[in-house]
Design goal:
- By secondary structure, the protein is mainly alpha-helical.
- The chain is built from five helices and no strands.
- The protein starts with a helix and ends in a 10-residue tail after the last helix.
């Protein structure tokens, strides 16, 4: 009986190891990609409140990844999350750019490497 229990535990652990847990917002095609690799994943479609929170968490995640390696790939991920936030929150991209330009004209940009001590 102990041998069977060990075997059951092994099988359960092996089955469990085939299911990946992410607990984070992912790109739309990720579940399909995982399943195409013969793996299993579980996911849910978030309500607006959860989606809003997860977008903010995803932005921090992607910014931290960019800070770690400064790659173009990570910058593209940051921009993709910003694009999703802009769409979700109905932000006018042209207005954001106008505000950015106005602030740059008034206070400058971050191009001269000035560090206030």
């Amino acid at each position: 009986m102990k041998i069977l229990n060990r075997l059951d535990n092994y099988i359960n652990e092996k089955e469990y190891s085939m299911i990946y847990k992410y607990n984070k917002l992912v790109r739309d095609k990720i579940p399909e990609e995982i399943e195409n690799q013969g793996k299993e994943c579980k996911y849910e479609i978030l309500d607006d409140e959860k989606y809003s929170k997860e977008l903010d968490k995803k932005l921090l995640e992607e910014v931290n990844e960019y800070i770690s390696d400064h790659s173009e790939k990570e910058m593209a991920d940051v921009q993709e999350v910003l694009k999703a936030i802009i769409k979700y929150r109905n932000i006018d991209e042209k207005r954001v750019e106008e505000l950015r330009k106005a602030k740059e004209l008034k206070k400058g940009g971050f191009y001269n490497k000035i560090y206030l001590t």
